[in-house]
Amino acid sequence: MTFLAHHLLLWSACLLLVDALLWHLAPFAQRLPRVALRLALFLGYSALIINAGVSPLQAQGWPDNNVLQLGATALAIIWWLYAARVLTELIGLVLIRRIGHSGRLLQDVIGALVFLVAIVAAAGYVLELPVKGLLATSGAMAIIVGLALQSTLSDVFSGIVLNTTKPYQVDDWIMIDGVEGKVLDIDWRATHLLTSVGTTAVIPNSVAAKAKLVNLSRPSNRHGVSISIKVPNHIRPRRVLDALERALQGSNSLLLDPPPKVLLKEAGESLSEYVASGFIAELGQKGQVRNQLFDLAHRHLEAAGISRQPEGFAEPSSRARVLLDEVKVFRSLDGHERDLMAQAMTPRQYAAGEVILELDEVPEALLVIATGVVSATVTEGNRQVEAGRMGPSEVMGEQSILADTPSQARFTALTSCIVYRLDKTLTRDCMAQRKEVNSALNKLQAVRQQSSRSVLLGKPIDTRKSGFLGWLQKRG
Length: 476
Fold this sequence. Notes:
Layout: H1 2-6, H2 8-25, H3 31-51, H4 66-99, H5 103-125, H6 131-148, H7 150-165, E1 173-176, E2 179-186, E3 190-195, E4 200-204, H8 205-210, E5 213-215, E6 223-232, H9 237-249, E7 261-267, E8 271-280, H10 286-303, H11 319-326, H12 335-343, E9 346-350, E10 355-357, E11 365-371, E12 374-380, E13 383-390, E14 395-396, H13 398-403, E15 410-413, E16 417-423, H14 424-433, H15 435-457
Antiparallel strand pairs: 1-2, 1-5, 2-3, 3-4, 6-8, 7-8, 9-16, 10-15, 11-14, 11-16, 12-13, 12-15
């Protein structure tokens, strides 16, 4: 205790070193314990220097000992800076708790003001400098510096406005002047975005405050998605609109409210542009849903007889033959085999709401959707749960073809549909001759069984953009 009493100033300096080490090295996961520790160390530091005779409110009284006088003056000045630092941390803790991450910018601005006051106070109380003259000089210097840093100050105050009004926050997806990305940070100078291609875009706050800004994350459960399709002018618009409306109905990722819609955007000299749009619940699915809509639009336009074939393309002889070219299960067949199979296919039309294949039914043919949208539902207790939607070129009844087992789902026409029937015997002969067809049907059955289990368990399933047959795209 005697050693401690005679070396209070030395212990004060050691306490400062302990504070610096603990602040950077202490494994505190939460901000509150770190700030509480710093406050406790500051109070201990204050008690040590005051007991040693050092007062932060006046000049030090050891004129005969220059070393002691210099050390005491330094510790008194450090007390003001230490107090400013602790006060800044406390203010930051309150701001973070009240307004979240955006409180960091206000903490930096307020911290700069607090440190400025602490420096002036230390100059006036500890060094006994003429504060009025210092303030006048600093005022003139502030004007000069302000003019030199006009753009930087504009960024700072624009950042304060952005953090106060909160047009966007960290983790929001936004678009500023055509630059789209996820907000990583909002500091005193700029907003940092992570773009969709993995690069970082730095937007000055002054630019963000003045620019046209689109927040793609708000509202949080409704995000627009659209595709644009160009079709030759000679095709009647009503046919195109009907086909694209069926394409929208074919996606169960789109919200029903507000309902999806299709419109003719522009009629050019040779091509007309159509836009199909809707809303989804999760922004992260936007790219996947757009890809799905493009695929559905292609299939439904093809099913409606609307297509742009390349020059020299030989049009098949029948709609059944055209359909077989799109069915991924029969991709391994050559042209002659598809011609023979198309001749054996018979069409049947179904009205909206009509059941195409009932639950537990054993069909006598493989069913191939030519036009329209079909909903597949599975039973959960006493209710039916939609497992997916299907469109042109997708097949039903593969369980019956493989092992004469009944259908595990009910397939209902959501729109008017045309479904081709391919005799079971002919399909099995094709499977015997082409192992690829047999393998494709077995994989299709496994995918659908997994989809049914995932729906009943309430777990999301990673479905490809082409529906149940999406996995087959990699085979091309």
